[in-house]
Write a structure and sequence with these properties.
Elements lengths: L1 H25 L5
């Protein structure tokens, strides 16, 4: 229930964070 939702949210955040970090590292002066 709550744990299942937290796990799902965590996986989604990881999937979104990986490409975001790659973009930031590739262009550190983008923003």
């Amino acid at each position: 229930m709550a744990l299942h939702i937290l796990e799902h949210v965590g996986l989604v955040l990881l999937l979104l964070a990986v490409p975001a970090k790659l973009l930031f590292y590739r262009e550190p002066g983008a923003r």
